[in-house]
Amino acid sequence: MAKIDWKQEVHKRKNELIQDLQGLLRIRSVLNETNATEEAPLGTGVKKALEYLLDLGKRDGFLIKNVGNLAGHLEMGSGDGLIAALCHVDVVPEGDGWIVDPFGGEIREGRIYGRGAIDDKGPTIAAYYGMKIVRDLGLPIDKRIRLIIGTDEESKWRCVNHYFENEEMPDRGFAPDADFPVIHAEKGIADFDLKQNRNSLREKGAKITLISFFSGRRYNMVPDYARAVLDIQQEQTEILQQFNDFIYRQELTGRYYVESGYVVLELEGISAHGMEPDHGKNAGLLLAGFLSTIKIDRKGMEFIKAAVHFFLGDSRGRALGVQHKDEQMGDVTINVGIMTYNDEDGGRFGLNMRYPASFSLDEGMEKIMRAAEEFHFQVSDISNLKPHYVPADDILIQKLVKVYEQQTNEKAELLAISGGTYARSLQSGVAFGALFPGRPDVAHQKDEYMELEDLLRAAALYAQAFYELALDE
Ligand SMILES: [Zn+2]
């Protein structure tokens, strides 16, 4: 067969591709459960976007299916084998400060603008045209190709959960919802609590008593604020002076005041995503660091000492005994997203641990339990997302790498990340685009855009990827 010029095929369809994307960008497909109905469980905007894609599929002769109004697919080809691209048409709210209309689909200086342009409507339409080109050319393929459309990626993944409860799992697939070249490894993510034992009693008559402590609300964020309430019976001025010195030395922002007879200490840190705690300054841990230098009551000190011993200045779990490095996927990391303390409930740490595929979570948890016990803490409320990993020699990766290298003339380095992509919901799936290396990531930001050039490059990559993956090995 003659060699197919994938880029040329995309260019022939450039105008309709852009128009179809503009139509999709003009739908405000933001989750809205206040107008939810059975036909539109996530709101009418999201539903309209799903229907828009299904209508495109009908127009161009694909087999289409709406799956519970939460997801859907377009299909072509025949055979037992199934390969798929997993996309989503829901978007996060537009937010403020846009220079262009967030739902206008405007084109300026070679970029197409709009909420969802890069996440994930642009890549979705690129994948759609990739599939359409394979169909238009009537290429002989051995497997069925599906474009799966989710509508709840930005919040609870109810789309893919429902979809895969009811529909067949593809043999292989990719999600055009992250970065090129190929993301083949995503860390496991375990959230759990360390809770202070109930039988720790508060010491009577201490000079300083920790009444309460609060920092952070989310496991996966570094807290940027912490607050401790103290009952200080003696030497109050001296302690407040020490707090001032501490703030000054550490170059932090903080304050103190008296409220209902108690002294309140507040400290500010720097927020960051929990996937790399070292990118932030954990206000809770820093405040614990200060409290460890003054003599507070025994139960309060047990909480503070645990914070300092296990976590202060250590995001790698060394003191918990779970330090682990993986050549490809990096370190185990632990983010202390939540810290609370009061007399009734005792202390609690809400932790977000991210770990590579070569780390045993069961063994790690046992080590953490033993270490925590020494400080009178117990592990509870564990939730876990397993690592997602497709080995480099898997045929899926081999084929995608070949396609990428052929079309871009650049080496396709495999990426390992600490976050999670949509590809996780596929049994054998990787993230494949559509943000090219070196491009700024404008997803979820104001004036979100995709370079038209990248949109077309992505479509050509997806066309060839579908084709190659749909051939028998
Ligand atoms: Zn996305």
UniProtKB/TrEMBL annotation:
Q: Which cofactor does it need?
A: Zn(2+)
Mention one GO molecular function.
dipeptidase activity
User: What InterPro entries does the annotation carry?
Assistant: ArgE/DapE_CS (IPR001261), Bact_exopeptidase_dim_dom (IPR036264), M20A_pepV-rel (IPR010964), Peptidase_M20 (IPR002933), Peptidase_M20A (IPR050072)
What are the protein's UniProt keywords?
Dipeptidase, Hydrolase, Metal-binding, Metalloprotease, Protease, Zinc
Top-level EC class as recorded in UniProt: hydrolase
Please give the coiled-coil regions recorded for this protein: none
Q: What is its EC number?
A: 3.4.13.-
Q: Which family does it belong to?
A: Belongs to the peptidase M20A family.
The name of this protein is Dipeptidase PepV
Q: Which organism is it from?
A: Siminovitchia sediminis
Lineage in the entry?
A: Bacteria, Bacillati, Bacillota, Bacilli, Bacillales
